[in-house]
Amino acid sequence: MEMWLKEAQISNAAMTYKVKETLVKRKTEFQDLAILDTHAFGRMLVLDGIVQTTIKDEFVYHEMISHIPLFTHPNPKKVLVVGGGDGGAIREILKHPSVEKAVLCEIDRAVIEECKKFLPEISCALDDPRCEVFVGDGIQYVHQHKNEFDVIIVDSTDPFGAAEGLFGGSFYKEIAECLTEDGIFVAQTETPFYLPDVVKRVYNDAKAVFPITKLFMAAIPTYPGGYWSFTIGSKKYDPENADLNAPLDFNTKYYTKKLHTACFALPKYVEDLIK
Ligand code: SAM
What we know:
Elements: E1 3-10, E2 13-27, E3 32-38, E4 42-47, E5 50-54, H1 58-72, E6 78-83, H2 88-93, E7 101-106, H3 109-118, H4 120-123, E8 131-135, H5 138-144, E9 149-155, H6 169-178, E10 179-188, H7 196-207, E11 212-219, E12 227-234, H8 257-262, H9 268-273
Parallel strand pairs: 6-7, 6-9, 7-8, 9-10
Antiparallel strand pairs: 1-2, 2-3, 3-4, 4-5, 10-12, 11-12
Helix pairs in contact: 5-6
C-alpha cells in the first residue's frame, strides 16, 4: 500500500510526499511529532503535520539562518537559538571559530531526543562541549537573560501554539534587551506568497525595535511557497555592508559570500509588502 503525507500549505492547497517508512510517531507534551523516511527528501521531522526539516534540503535553511547573522557580527562569541531542537542551526553556528558558547533553548525535549536518534546528520553538534541545551520556553529564557548574547536566532515553528509569542513586538523588545549592545537577531518569518500579512506585521514589529531591520530570502523546496523569508534586526551592523573579505574556511552547500548580499535583493511583490 502506498503511504503519502499531505501537508496543507493553506486551506485549499497542499504538498504531498510519498512515505517509505514511519520511524517514530508520538504525542509529546506540546505537539504531534513524527519522523518519516520519504522517497524524495529522505528522513523528515514533522510537527503537528507540518514539515520542519528534511535531510535533503535542511542545509538551505540552517546555513542561511546562521551564517547571515554570524558573518555580519565581527566577533560573535555567545549565541542563543530559540526553538531549533533538531540541532541544525547549532551545527552551523559551531563552524564559526569565534563562537565560545551556543545555547539551544527548545521547549520540547522530545524533539531533541528523537532528532538525536533519527536525524544525526542534523543534530550532530548538540553534544559539542560549546553547546548548552536548555529545555524550556524561549520567551521566559529571553526575559531572564539581559545583555548576554551577540546573536539570537529564532528558529521556531509557525506562529501558533507555543510559538505564537515568538513573533511580535513585545518579544522583539525582550530580544533586544537579551542582546549585547551591538547584537543581532534573526528569525524565520514565513512565506510572503501565502502569508503576506504575517511577513509584513513581523517585519514592521522588528523595525519598531531595531535600528537596522532587513528581510532576506532563500529557496527551500519543502517550505510552503518554496521561497522563504527571514527577518534580521541589528543594533549596529548592517548585514548588507558586512566585512566579507576573509575567505570562507568551512564547507557550505548554499551560503556563499556573494549570496550574503544577494539574498537581500527582494522580488518586487516582497519589496512592496515591507515598504
Ligand atoms: N526550521 C523549522 C521551520 O521553520 O519549520 C523550525 C524547526 S524547529 C524543530 C522549531 C522548534 O521550535 C520546535 O521543535 C518547537 O518545539 C520549538 N518551539 C516552539 N515554540 C517554542 C518556544 N516558545 N520556546 C522554545 N522552543 C519553541
